[in-house]
């Protein structure tokens, strides 16, 4: 199951896995775009087994409905790739449940989804949960765990996005510690580097003409790779037999922006066990989801 699999890195990941014979569930917010992605994969991979599942990570009701639908279908889950996300909304916006949109979608939605699906993975040998972060998780300064929903301080969309992606890594580390006590399932994180995706193109468009020109002439050749190559770290985290629980994969080139995937190190705050534990507690309280580990 891959969230946000109708476009960009999620689509490229789904395409590769379908080519390797996997039954792939495209978990998407827009059912029409999901159906179009299914058709594109079917055209490239005749006989591919593709299912489209409606999922809006910014709405816990939708997350629960998707988990219930997969449960009713009786599917075992070998691989859950938490890929979907939003990037750099200009204004403070909130989810259907009142959470800051980046944190609520990128982290809390995936936290809840993973917790609700985990029972279907624990008994599956070799099963993995891969949560997709960003090299941007290093930005934004310290993450204020007393105000994850930005109610008591001036809003910064850049910091909000960075903190939500830092939360992805912290969640992975905390989950792996719990899984290691009783399960064959492992949790791994990955990031795509400077991938050419809808979000990155939107950010470029916001730079103005001069900024766009400088970006196209200087930054893009050095730091940006295709969405197809951006999927490589996710695919390695998902499939390499040598990958261990709690590892973090990203491109091995300059500034982790491009290149072949390798194990990388996340920023200092993301590695703090106390911060991970506090984030886990907050996430449980906000979502109402308890994990079976």
From TrEMBL:
Organism: Streptomyces lannensis
Keyword terms, alphabetized: Oxidoreductase
Record flagged with keyword Transcription: no
Alphabetical list of InterPro entries matching this protein: NAD(P)-bd_dom_sf, SDR_fam
Pfam families the UniProt entry points to: adh_short
SUPFAM superfamilies: NAD(P)-binding Rossmann-fold domains (SSF51735)
Source organism, top-level taxon: Bacteria
Membership in a protein family: Belongs to the short-chain dehydrogenases/reductases (SDR) family.
Keyword presence, Signal: no
Name of this protein: Oxidoreductase
